[in-house]
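ok so dumb question maybe but i'm new to this and my supervisor (M.) told me to 'just get the structure for Outer membrane protein assembly factor BamE' and walked off. so i did the thing. is this what she meant?? sequence i used:
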Amino acid sequence: MADRVKNAKTRNRLHAMRGPAIVRGCLAGAAALLLAGCEFNMEVGREVDLAALDGRLVAGTSTRADVLAALGEPFGEGRAMFPFHETPRDVLAYYYERGDLEDNRRTFLWVFVDDGRYGGHMWFSSLPEV
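this is what came out, is it supposed to look like this??
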């Protein structure tokens, strides 16, 4: 019994020491990156051609396959219903984000598909060139 208590105390002490060591390691790594002048850039998702929405897709006529041909595979899929819709619609979600530690911009595009036909779209962007 005494050995169990001793082993438990040792384990607890070692476990308690791990947390601060991890924090110190992370802080040291972050400081090294900052001092080295490393640049951090990220890019998530894929840019889509928003002009293709008006040039190639016709609401009520274009099919889901037409949407995929014009815009490519979506980042995600789901369903949505707005107050002016009678029933929920399929939504193809396109997302693109890029940035660094000082500035981060993104574009959200939702394409609505009703009964297999393109039903319109909605997008928001903070990218300056869109």
